[in-house]
Write a structure and sequence with these properties.
With 208 residues, this protein is of the alpha+beta class. The chain contains five helices and ten strands, in the order αααααββββββββββ. Helix 4 crosses helix 5. The longest helix is centred in the first third of the chain and has 15 residues. The N terminus is likely disordered.
Length: 208
């Protein structure tokens, strides 16, 4: 299997590209500071922005409401995806290093209720003892760091944008999530209150 190592130069490029994104609004000073220190932080609590901490704290209620909205407008989706969409006994985890198939399921969307997208490509890699995940294909592509207790802080690239958007650099691109293990080589990245389209997103990852 071909493995690509993402070194500090690649991480630096992810951080610097936030400042170069032509379509981005000016970044708040606090956000720029957070983007600089996230790779070095010992804990996510040290760098998470207040609004994102609130999103994490509201995860359970957000998840339940998103499921209710989705079930009302698109009951077939909820039935088809089954346990993948349900909060339960899954434990937070850090995925194993490697290549994954990944897809996004959006819940709590207006009118549609929810939608499941096709499979794309993700990669989990280690850089100097830190675990990062990057969604390499698709129109919304997350890149960020997974801390030891399964909390993810990252940013989102849209459309044809290149490089990466670091956490804290652009407010409406920030992603906060929890990563849970569903089985061997099978994880989900649960994102409460994303800035676009939905109330909760689940990024499913399957090794292979």
């Amino acid at each position: 299997m071909l493995r690509v190592h993402y070194g500090m130069k690649q991480i630096a490029a992810l951080l610097l590209s936030a400042a170069l994104a032509a379509c981005a609004s000016p970044s708040p000073e606090r956000g720029v500071e957070a983007a600089t220190v996230v790779p070095k932080a010992g804990t996510w609590q040290a760098v998470i922005l207040p609004e994102d901490r609130q999103r994490l704290e509201n995860l359970d209620s957000t998840w339940q409401r998103a499921l209710e909205v989705t079930a009302y407008a698109n009951a077939d989706l909820v039935a088809q995806e089954g346990a993948l969409l349900q909060p339960g006994e899954a434990r937070r985890a850090v995925p194993e290093i490697g290549t994954y198939r990944c897809r996004t399921i959006k819940l709590g969307m207006e009118q549609l209720g929810g939608i499941a997208y096709d499979w794309f490509r993700c990669r989990v890699f280690d850089d100097e003892g830190q675990v990062w995940v990057v969604k390499e294909t698709g129109s919304q592509r997350q890149t960020g760091r997974i801390f030891a207790d399964g909390v993810f802080l990252g940013g989102t690239l849209l459309g044809e944008e290149q490089g990466g958007i670091a956490y804290g650099a652009i407010t409406d691109r920030n992603v906060v999530a929890v990563v849970e293990r569903l089985g061997q080589g099978h994880y989900r990245l649960v994102q409460p209150q994303p800035y676009y389209e939905s109330a909760l997103d689940i990024l499913e990852l399957k090794a292979g």
